[in-house]
Design brief:
Elements lengths: L1 H6 L6 H21 L21 E3 L4 E4 L3 H12 L5 H14 L7 H24 L8 H7 L5 E5 L1 E4 L2 E4 L1 H4 L8 E10 L9 E18 L4 E10 L5 E3 L5 E3 L4 E2 L5 E3 L4 E7 L7 E5 L21 E3 L4 E3 L38
Antiparallel strand pairs: 1-4, 2-3, 3-7, 4-5, 6-7, 6-13, 7-8, 8-11, 8-12, 9-10, 10-14, 13-14, 15-16
Helix pairs in contact: 4-5
């Protein structure tokens, strides 16, 4: 009776409410048993948000700004450097620079700076000449990227990327939570000094905070990108004796490369060091509500990351192990009596029936 009473929405027609609710329940069970796949569920899973485009979605109303000059050029170059279709053009452009500047071909840093400065304009002319051919192999993505971005750029205070929410520093100022800290591992050219002509390219860790969130518009599609204040790697990052990373957030570096794709960063938290207020401790956190981020070749042997095969999720902290830790016992020590739950010397209380 309790189930039927819960179906009543209109007390004037209780029989009709019960009949309507019963029909709906039977229809849902029929669809779930015969028409839906075995692994499907009725409704939308909690881990999926409506309106996601490639795992991304804005969390605030856009604010249109006019971006032109050096800042827009750096954002455009960052997107080109992370586009797989543009890799053959980068190689071709480097070969062109080596032929044009043979005296500087042995200086990788000078050649890289020259390529970053001239590649967007060179690509635009290169693609325009290639499109004149009837049987050209220019991809649709390169066609729109070569034309350059729109100077009218929508900016946001919050953005959702692959199950993680990011905010700008301005957005963090009006909230109790911190979502502006980011972390990036990327290939970077390491130069010892200004006279170093043999720099090395290795993976480096970068820590920073989001200043602005852009959606660079290429008329056909948009690319979410973060404008960050990156901490200087040489004098702004250190590791203490316990192995924790500390950063000095007021020491800003990498001013010539402040942009990063929204899908390439991880969220980090920065907590003020109680021993030194100038430094902040980096706190790593797992990506919440994130599925599909695990690599297929991950065998779970990495000490830093834990790979869950059931939901294909990478968790940066080891999971909780529900096992009682070993407790030190003095039973085997000479001179100590075996432990017992009964206190010695007590004979107990006898009760007569």
């Amino acid at each position: 009776m309790k189930v039927f009473k819960g179906m009543v929405r209109n007390r004037t027609y209780p029989e009709g409410c019960i009949a309507e609710s019963y029909i709906v329940e039977e229809a849902v069970e029929l669809l779930g048993e015969r028409m839906l796949p075995e692994d499907a569920t009725v409704g939308i899973p909690k881990s999926i948000r409506p309106g996601l485009v490639n795992g991304c979605k804005c969390l605030s109303a856009p604010k249109i700004i006019t971006a032109n000059g050096k800042l827009l050029d750096m954002a455009h170059l960052c997107i080109l450097q992370n586009c797989e279709d543009a890799n053959p053009y980068f190689k071709e452009h480097m070969e062109f620079l080596e032929l044009s500047f043979p005296y500087n071909a042995n200086n990788p840093k000078w050649m890289k700076d020259k390529q970053n400065l001239t590649f967007p304009n060179w690509l635009k002319k290169r693609v325009a000449n290639e499109l004149k051919l009837v049987d050209n192999e220019v991809s649709e993505t390169i066609r729109w990227l070569a034309g350059g971005p729109n100077t009218e750029v929508p900016t946001f205070r919050g953005y959702h990327v692959n199950g993680v929410d990011f905010n700008t520093r301005e957005g963090d100022n009006v909230r109790l939570v911190q979502n502006s800290g980011v972390f990036l591992v990327a290939d970077a050219m390491q130069v010892a000094s200004a006279r170093d002509k043999r720099p090395r390219t290795n993976d480096m860790e970068f820590y920073g905070r989001i200043q602005q969130i852009w959606e660079v518009d290429y008329y056909k599609f948009r690319v979410p990108i973060f404008l960050c204040d990156w901490v200087e790697s040489s004098r702004g990052v250190k590791v203490d004796e316990l192995g924790s990373a500390l950063v000095k957030l007021d020491r800003i570096g990498h001013l010539n490369d402040p942009f990063v794709l929204a899908t390439h960063v991880k969220k980090k938290f920065y907590i003020e060091d109680p021993l030194d207020a100038e430094w902040s401790v980096v706190v790593r956190c797992p990506n919440k509500d994130f599925k599909g981020g695990g690599d297929d070749d991950n065998d779970g042997d990495d000490d830093d990351d834990y790979y869950d095969e059931e939901d294909n999720t990478v968790v940066e902290q080891h999971p909780y192990i529900p096992i009682m830790p070993p407790v030190e016992s003095f039973d085997d020590v000479v001179g100590h009596e075996p432990s017992s739950y009964v206190r010695p010397g007590d004979e107990g209380i006898w009760i007569d029936k």
